[in-house]
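Sample intake sheet
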Amino acid sequence: MDTEAVLQGAAQVCAERGGKLTIKRRQVLASLIASDKAMSAYDLADKCKDAYGVRLFPMSIYRILEFLQTVGLVHQLKTTNKFIACAHIPCDHADNTLQFLICKECNRVEEVGITNSLSEGLAKTLDSLGFRLMNDQVELECVCNNCSATA
């Protein structure tokens, strides 16, 4: 993956949505892009200190992450309260429900889209059971093939 090209696309997304990819936001986003694992604000503080020599406090990182989520560049995993960079920064994925496969052994995360027809089918099934979706983000706890092979 060309991280610089992704960051340029992210800067464009920010501009289109009325924001700016500041240096600190760029550093946090670059740290998430470089990782294939979900990261907490504390993980990101350590990563930014190691990679850029910048000391960012977790509260500052939370504000940065909130902005990055608002413009659609970062996703928060509800089950772990960690964050990942959107896998579709250069393109729009509004037609898909987000699904995250989370390895419980190594914390690797893969973002995949569920087609609207599958999402609508799930919503209909839940409706027939007397429930409704409060959030269309789906998080599945899994074990990746690498961790399965070593177990």
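Comment: The two ends are 29 Å apart (CA to CA). The chain has a mean pLDDT of 88.
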